[in-house]
Write a structure and sequence with these properties.
The protein is an alpha/beta fold and 471 residues long. It is built from 16 helices and 24 strands. The chain folds into three domains: 235 residues, Metallo-beta-lactamase, Chain A; 108 residues, Oxidized Rhodanese, domain 1; 104 residues, Rhodanese-like domain (Oxidized Rhodanese, domain 1, 3-Layer(aba) Sandwich).
C-alpha cells in the first residue's frame, strides 16, 4: 500500500500521504500545504480528501487551505462540529481513494470526535491504522485537553471513553497492522511516547502500558492520568482555530513578509503593543541584540516556546532574523496560530548594528567560572529547566524557576545581588535572559553550555532517585 509519513521533528508531528490510481488523501496536514500539493503533483494525482483524526490542540491544521486550493473534501469523525464546510462521517463509513478503502473507526477518548482510520488495500487486506492521538507508539493520547474547551468533558470521562475505544475498536484488530500515529517523542499530547514513529499493533499490544489486556477500567484511568503535566497554554487557542477556521497562510505570509527600513522598523518598535521577536541562535543573540526583543531561536522547539511564552495569540510581531529565514519564521509561527507578524527588519540585526544603534548584551560565563564563583561568592544559581529535569539532577542549592513560569515569578529573581541562569544546553536560559532584560534585570550571567557543561565540572550536584529504581 502506498502510504508516506511526512514527519516534522521540531513539533514531533506526523502527517500522512496516501495515493492510488491518481487519487490522494492527506491525513492531519500542517498549516503549510504546498509540500502536500507538490507531492501529489509528483504522482500526477488529485487530492480528493483531507482526513482529520480530531481537532488538534498542538498545531493549526492545513485542512482549510488544502480544501480551497485543491477542492479536497475535509472529513472528520462522528460528533465533530466544524465551523466550515466539512463531511462529518459516521462510524464505519467507507471512503475510496483509488482502489484503496478508508474505514472510519470512531475512537473517542483523547477528544470526543477522535477517530482512527483503517487503511485497506486494493485486495481488501487491512494494512494499518492512522490513529491520530488515540494510540501513540508506547502511549495513548492524554484525555485532559478537551475540558479546556468544553468544561463538561472531564478528563475522567474521556479517559473512560478511551479505555473502551482501545479495547472495542483497536485491540481486536490484527497484530500485523501498522500503527501510524500523529505524534512522536517530544509532543505534549502524551507523556511517554517512543522515539519510534511507527510500529506493528501486535508489538504495541505487548509493550504499550495502556493496552495491557488484564487492566481494569479504573486501573487504566489511574495510570493514564497519573503524571500528567499542565498542558501548554496555547493548546485551547489552537483547538478553537481548528474548529472555527482561520485566515489562509497566503494572507499571513503577505502580511508578514514586509521588509522594513531601519527607520520604519524603529518607529513601529516604539509601540509597546508590538513584540520584537529575534529568531537567531542563542549564542548570537547573547553577543548583541536590539533592546526589548525576545529571543526564541529557530534551531529548537521554536513553535512550542512561542505558544508557551507569548500570551496573546493575536500579538503583532516584528521579526529580526538571519538573512533568508523570514519565511521560515512566519511559517513556524503560523503552525501554532501566531498569524500577526507584520514585517521584518531588512538586513536583520547587522543593519541595526551597522547604524550604531543601541544594543544590549548578555554576560555569559563558563561552567568552570561558575564553579569558582560558587566556591568563593556563594553565588545564586537559578535553573530554568522543567521541574522534572531539575528533580532528576541539579546543582546543590540551585533554585528552580521553569522557563514557562518566569513571567509570573519575576518577584523571585533578586535585584540586589547577582545571580546566574542555566538550562540544559543554553537555548532556554537565553530565552529567559531576554525576558529578564525586558523587565529591567541586568544583574545576571548565563552559563555557556548549561547543565551539560556543569555536570563535567567539579560543581556538586544532587540527584533525585525514584524509589522504583531501587526494586
Amino acid at each position: 500500500m502506498k502510504i508516506e509519513q511526512i514527519y516534522t521533528g521540531c513539533i514531533a508531528h506526523a502527517a500522512y500521504y496516501v495515493e492510488n490510481k491518481g487519487e490522494a488523501a492527506i491525513f492531519d496536514p500542517l498549516r503549510e500545504v504546498q509540500p502536500y500539493i507538490d507531492r501529489a503533483k509528483k504522482d500526477n494525482a488529485k487530492i480528493k480528501y483531507v482526513f482529520e483524526t480530531h481537532f488538534h490542540a498542538d498545531f493549526v491544521s492545513g485542512h482549510l487551505d488544502l480544501a480551497q486550493k485543491e477542492g479536497a473534501k475535509i472529513v472528520y469523525g462522528p460528533t465533530a462540529k466544524p465551523g466550515f464546510d466539512a463531511l462529518v462521517a459516521e462510524d464505519n463509513q467507507l471512503f475510496k481513494v483509488g482502489d484503496y478503502t478508508i474505514r472510519v473507526l470512531h475512537t473517542p477518548g483523547h477528544t470526543l470526535e477522535s477517530t482512527t482510520y483503517l487503511l485497506i488495500d486494493e485486495n481488501g487486506k487491512e494494512h494499518g491504522i492512522i490513529s491520530g492521538d488515540t494510540l501513540f507508539i508506547g502511549d495513548v493520547g492524554r484525555p485532559d485537553l478537551a475540558q479546556h474547551v468544553i468544561a463538561d468533558l472531564t478528563q475522567d470521562k474521556l479517559a473512560r471513553m478511551l479505555f473502551h475505544s482501545l479495547r472495542n475498536k483497536i485491540m481486536p484488530l490484527s497484530d500485523d497492522l501498522i500503527v501510524y500515529p500523529n505524534h512522536g517523542a517530544g509532543s505534549a499530547c502524551g507523556k511517554m511516547m517512543s522515539k519510534e514513529t511507527t510500529d506493528t499493533l501486535g508489538n504495541q499490544k505487548k509493550t504499550n502500558y495502556a493496552l495491557r489486556p488484564d487492566m481494569t477500567e479504573d486501573e487504566f484511568v489511574n495510570e493514564l492520568l497519573n503524571g500528567l503535566t499542565t498542558p501548554p497554554v496555547y493548546f485551547p487557542k489552537n483547538v478553537l482555530m481548528n474548529i472555527q477556521g482561520y485566515e489562509s497562510l497566503d494572507t499571513i505570509m503577505h502580511r508578514g513578509k514586509i521588509a522594513l527600513s531601519l527607520d520604519d522598523f524603529e518607529k513601529l518598535s516604539a509601540n509597546k503593543d508590538i513584540l520584537l521577536l529575534d529568531t537567531r541562535r542563542a549564542e548570537d543573540f547573547a553577543k548583541g541584540f536590539i533592546p526589548n526583543s525576545l529571543n526564541i531561536g529557530l534551531e529548537s522547539n521554536f513553535a512550542m516556546w512561542v505558544g508557551e511564552l507569548i500570551d496573546n495569540i493575536k500579538q503583532k510581531i516584528l521579526l529580526i532574523t538571519y538573512p533568508g529565514k523570514v519565511e521560515e519564521s512566519i511559517i513556524r509561527l503560523s503552525r501554532v496560530g501566531y498569524d500577526y507578524a507584520i514585517g521584518y527588519l531588512e538586513g536583520g540585526f547587522d543593519a541595526w548594528l551597522n547604524a550604531n544603534k543601541k544594543i544590549e548584551l548578555i554576560n555569559r560565563i563558563t561552567a568552570q567560572e561558575l564553579s569558582h564563583e560558587i566556591q568563593n561568592n556563594n553565588k545564586l544559581l537559578i535553573d530554568v529547566r522543567k521541574k522534572s529535569e531539575f528533580n532528576a539532577e541539579h546543582v546543590i542549592d540551585a533554585i528552580n524557576i521553569p522557563l514557562n513560569e518566569i513571567s509570573k515569578r519575576l518577584n523571585e529573581f533578586p535585584k540586589d545581588k547577582p545571580f546566574v541562569l542555566n538550562c540544559a544546553g543554553g537555548y532556554r536560559s537565553i530565552i529567559a535572559a531576554s525576558i529578564l532584560k525586558q523587565n529591567g534585570f541586568s544583574n545576571f550571567s548565563d552559563v555557556v553550555g548549561g547543565f551539560s557543561e556543569i555536570k563535567i565540572t567539579s560543581i556538586p550536584t544532587t540527584e533525585f532517585v525514584c524509589p522504583s529504581t531501587l526494586l
